[in-house]
Amino acid sequence: MADAKLQANVFNDYDYMKDDSIDPELKCPLCTLPFQSPVASATCGHTFCQVCISQWMTRQATCPICRTMTSAKEFRPISTRIVLNQLERLLVRCKRCNQANIQRGDIHEHEKRCPNQTVSCPAFDIKCKWKGARSALTQHIQECPFQKIRPAIDDIYEHLKNIYEPLVDELQTVRQQLEKQMQRTNDQNHFLLAVFNKGKPMTNQCSGQTRNCQLQPSIQIETRSQRMQKQNNPFQEQLNFQQVNQAFSRLVDQSAKTISPENKFSCTNCQCGVNPQDIVLHHCEGGGICRSCLETYGSLESHEKIFANKP
Hints:
alpha+beta; 3 domains; 12% strand; elongated
């Protein structure tokens, strides 16, 4: 839509030659001029300029010719090459320089060389405000004070660019590091709040004050397996390291088989469902932290020290 409006503004500076001889089928029923960015209704097939029908649709949702109910989204661009070629070959005259017999499809090329086209000074980027006809541009450039000091400005710009670009890159790197550190700090704070558990801090042991701790069986199995690995009885001395590991794995597997999906626990920090044996910190009245979160955000010893120092 924006491109169609820009093209319509360009055509304001041109007149059609032999307008009476132009086929009426190539003219918009609304503006009565040759189509610009023609679109056709998918409902009734009538064709209009895109800008014209868009303005019409802001007032009423009907076809201007047959009054069929429609909407702006029902209009599709015309892609028939024969029609578009006929429109592009129409002859126009430039109102600024009076050059005639310009094919409509060549208007943009004419804009680049029209002597009366309004242009800006090449030094507009360094605050020269001059605007005038293209035919006067050469004379202006010879007299423009901004153009005369451009070489010095370009040298200064390059010098400053070489100084500040490394600083900008370094600042960007520092910013990214700070953002990562802030995210890490936020995650750790969230983890500590989860461990503190609204005044009921979690540990790796049952408090003994609650008989219905759902994690107590898995904790007993974990403690039992740890003791089995530490014992130095004659039977264990005859087992190699691989056999000990296999025995421990079978013990863990047996405990896991007794846990149904419905009995999975949710980690208070990451909200992920985990098996009870993967909860390493908990409070018997509710709340638990999974092994993954503890390994990511801290160690068991550090959290024990934190809560040991609390009054």
